[in-house]
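Study this:
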Amino acid sequence: MAGLGYRQEMAEWDMSTVAADFFEVAPENWIRRDRTPLHQLLQSGRPIQLHGVSLSLGGQAPIQQSFLTSVRELMHDLDIVHYSDHLAASGDAHQLYDLFPIPFTRSEVIRISDRIKHVQDVLGIRIAVENTTYYTNFAEMSEAEFLMQVVEQADCHILLDINNIVVNHKNHQRLAVHDFVSQIDMQRVTYMHVAGHEFDERFGLYIDTHSQGVEANTREVAMALHQQYQIPVLLEWDNDIPSLTHINQELACLKTSTVM
């Protein structure tokens, strides 16, 4: 089962010809907008998942109640029961439209878990949190250990981003993707993300650009996990979005080894 992150650049496409089994959208883009395109996707028999970018679970400011209320209304309108956001900070006094890492410490496990519990209480569901890329960070434990301690204490789900694990390994030489995944309770994973990344010579780092095809190793790991656990895989492509034909080719690659 292969999904696709729906982007505004796809608005002119004939979505009936997109070979995705489900879609993912950012709720921030639809809270105060005409939702006709989303209802049309749902009418085609393909579900939608909400994946936010501004909850700022790692921030210091209180969680925005008005935003959560709007998300709850959107979920009700579209009959959606899945919501996820990033295990990162995205601003406090102002939305920064970027994701900043949370220190992998025991005190942060407690603080972030409490914030997730609050979100879940308001929405009335278990949310999922995504492991993110980071370019510098402070750690008392591995990223995988931190992720698992947070989700166990908050009793929430995981949106497992395979590409982010690969990028972090390339940049920091820490847990390789197989070692990372071996520490994850796959029963908590709702679905997986795959995407492409690029090396930026200016910084000497691999950047999670979502502007390239999925790397072979990333795809192979995702497909192996899908076969073993029957967890869906979703393609993210946010920048330099190619043609519909190219996207369908990428989706086909995600279905080649998929047990349907």
About this structure: The chain has a mean pLDDT of 91. The chain has eight helices and twelve strands.
